Amino acid sequence: MTAEKAESYTDLEMMEIMINDLFEKFRNNSKGVKVGDIMKIMEYKRKITLSDKSERKFWEMINGIREAHLAGGKKKKSSGAEKKA
Fold first, then answer.
1. By the 8 A CB rule, do 16 and 49 touch?
2. Does residue 23 contact residue 15 with C-beta atoms inside 8 Å?
3. Under DSSP, is residue 9 helix (H, G, I), strand (E, B) or coil?
4. pLDDT at 84 > cutoff 80
5. What does R_g of the chain's alpha carbons equal in angstroms?
6. Which of 12, 55, 78, 83 has the smallest set of CB atoms within 10 Å of its CB?
7. How many CA atoms lie within 13 A of 34 on its CB side?
8. Angle between helices 11-27 and 35-48 (to 10 degrees)
């Protein structure tokens, strides 16, 4: 694959090519190819292809954790001030 041709692929297309190439080498018992290599690329591909809905849920979860943490920090400070009084 030439550099010019590689630049025309999207990230997902490149991941798919890499998965297929590694799987084909694995099936042909090529040395140096491990199942873990194939699975790692598949995991990266899945991360790239997160749907909008999944991504929105993820960020909602992060915001919920952040808000809970910030609210928890404020409560601790105010309760500490009450103990001193």
1. no
2. no
3. coil
4. no
5. 23
6. 83
7. 4
8. 160
When pLDDT is averaged across residues 54-78 and rounded to a whole number, the result is 75
DSSP 22-34: HHHHHHTT-TT--
Long-range contacts of 25-32 (CB under 8 A, 24+ apart): none
For residue 59, the SS3 value is helix
With a cut of 70, say whether residue 15 has pLDDT above it: yes
- How many percent of the chain have pLDDT more than 70? 73
Please say whether the beta carbons of 19 and 38 come within 8 A.
yes
| Residue range 30-55: mean pLDDT, rounded | 78
**Tokens 């799987």 label which residue?**
23
Taking 70 as the threshold, does the pLDDT of residue 75 lie above it?
A: no
Helical H segments across 1-85, by residue range: 3-7, 11-27, 35-48, 52-84
Neighbours of 52 (CB within 10 A): 7
